[in-house]
Amino acid sequence: MSIDKKLTLESKVGDLYATPVGQDTIGKVLMQLGLSDKVITNGIVSNLKLKTIANLTKAKLGEGFFEALIHLVNSEKDVPFVSRGPITKKWWKEAVFYQIYPRSFYDTNGDGIGDLPGIIEKLDYLKELGVDALWLSPIYDSPNDDNGYDIRDYQKIMEEFGTMEDFDILLEEIHKRDMKLIMDLVVNHTSDEHEWFQNALKDPTSKYRDYYYFRKDDGSKTPPNNWNSFFAGPAWNYYEELDSWALHLFSKKQMDLNWENPEVREEVIKMVNWWLDKGVDGFRMDVINYISKEEGLPQGNYVIGQMMGYYGIEQYYYGPKLHQFLREIQEKAFAPHNAFSVGETPGIGRNMCQLVTGEERKELDMVFSFDHLETPGHVRMDDYEYDLNYYRDYMIDWITNYGNNCWMSIFYNNHDNPRMVNKVTEDPNYQEAVMKLLAVMQMTLKGTPFIFQGDEMGLTNYKFTSMDQITDVEAKGYYAEYLEKMSEKDAFAKILSGTREHTRVLLPWNEKLPEYHKGLEQKIRSEITETYKELIKIRHLDKSFVYGEFTVLNKKKDRFVYQRSFDGREYIIDCNLGKKEVNAFIQDGYECIFTTKKVSNKLDAYEARVWKKK
Q1: Contact 123, 106 (CB under 8 A)
Q2: Which of the 8 DSSP states describes residue 194?
Q3: What radius of gyration, in Å, describes the C-alpha atoms of the chain?
Q4: CA pair distance 594, 534, nearest whole angstrom
Q5: So which residues are the catalytic ones?
Q6: How many other β-carbons are positioned within 10 Å of the β-carbon of residue 64?
Q7: Coil, helix or strand for 231?
Q8: Per the confidence metrics, is the pTM higher than 0.90?
């Protein structure tokens, strides 16, 4: 199904909101402003012409805001197809994934850096936990400006982690245990030390100059556009010897690849096939929705930049050729190997996610969407208490409307975020209960669970005391920006709230921490580990938790009670999302097969239970 009519300023607000991109984009803005969609959907506003709204808001939004929004909306002609039919069975829908951040997982040679032999040594632990598939964050050769997400050589292992022989053994041992392995595919950008970029710098006539986004300076010695980097500062490096600029959406050493160049796509697909031929089972695709940029790299709208925190983001976060590029990788690499793909897609909403994951579209199998990680009006660096009622409503919306032809990933933590438990509460009296509650929901909701290393150990955020303990390039960039606006104390407090460093410290089973992390210790909470083992086992024993129908029974404040049913079997999951005691689900004909506390007619703070119909 497609949209035949293009929007103009003569169109109505309701017409804009009825489009998939319009709904997602306006929804994102409203969320950042902490406003409900009723602001748009009420009869008065929805019937206003866009030009009327543009005139009324010109002083605040400027003249170009609605033109930019209309252009973005008109770039997508398709409408998501929502299937209510049978769910296609796939191994990756039934699997429990475990993300390994190799640098901080397990160090076997005492240098303070995790390594591939360390992962091999812990495979039996992961198998016993119940894990079906591993996702490895980048292990490729890298100068480590962004801890491996700046790749110098895609077909070489980082020396700190081991050798290609170590990798081959790891892959063999994973498959011996009937587990799968997916790698991290970072192809929006390469390191500036990659041979392609080095050749581009050395020879202006080299074909590699067009592998990246180079722009000749216009004499002003200012960047070609107003785009800024996700790691602070402009998104452009100036190279004096070339009198040219080159684009980097992330760190100054992560140079964006020009996917418009077919040779770039051929090189990437060739590399992907090389790894798949080795036996890798799939890839997690880093910021993959950024690979298509608007032609000419136009200026970002100032107001959109202010709202979203990044100037220019509307020019690439859902680019005009994204679908084409994803289908090309799928057709020429993933499909021939029957390989799995999960895309990291920051910024895009549910409708746009449907348009890249619908199985009929042959683009991605699954995505990581991040809108559930912060409540409306908040960003990661804010210090606030996360409301689990928002998580409940978010999950209900997605599960209900995503369709059986699309599939969700269910996660709370990864290498780019602090621990979710600390967002919910900093009170140690409640944290274990929150951890168990999160685990219950993760293993019983409709979608594929992704555990991040340490979740099952009951880890929380670390109590950093100085920027000297922070290696995260993103945090360093933000800290420098914050210092221009606030005191060192306030700037460090913001970093402490949201730095990625919290999930990058060596796990507690390591004996030696690097100098900069010395004294940052936590103990493994065995009770949380056993909780994960038991819940994963329950999920594995009955496909009801994978393919079963999802029905909400109670979504009042601080309550989340839902049913999973499949082939005549039925389960009720009863969750208390708050600190106050509530009345529990009690009904004859059900037996409690899991509880985070003792069974009674009440649920304590953050308590959860799983009931099975007899």
Answers
A1: no
A2: S
A3: 24
A4: 8
A5: 286, 344
A6: 15
A7: coil
A8: yes
